[in-house]
Design goal:
The chain has 72 residues and is an alpha+beta fold. The chain has a single domain (6-63), classed as SepF-like protein (Translation Initiation Factor IF3), CATH 3.30.110. 36% of the residues lie in helices and 21% in strands. The protein has helices at residues 9-17, 31-47; strands at residues 22-25, 51-56, 59-63. A hairpin with a 2-residue loop joins β2 and β3. α1 (9-17) packs parallel to α2. The longest helix is centred in the middle third of the chain and has 17 residues, at 31-47.
Length: 72
């Protein structure tokens, strides 16, 4: 996903809640919006016992709590 609006971050939480893994790319969002998107999504992951993995400065992996990430 490459959301540009904060409202789109809710889709990340809903997808992980539905047992999907999501890669978030923030390169196309301005810096302030990217920080808010990541913060919102991380808060959602905490609420649903999901996991957050930072791949690089602009890419994050969000996964369900039962998922196992072997290597990034």
């Amino acid at each position: 996903m490459a959301p540009r609006r904060l409202e789109e971050a809710q889709q990340i939480i809903e997808a992980v809640r539905d047992n999907q893994t999501v890669v978030l790319q923030t390169a196309n969002a301005d810096e302030g919006m990217a920080q808010r998107l990541i913060g919102f999504a991380c808060g959602g992951m905490a609420a649903i016992d999901g996991h957050v993995h930072r791949i690089n400065a602009e890419t994050f992996l969000f996964s369900p709590g039962h998922a196992r990430v072997e290597q990034l």
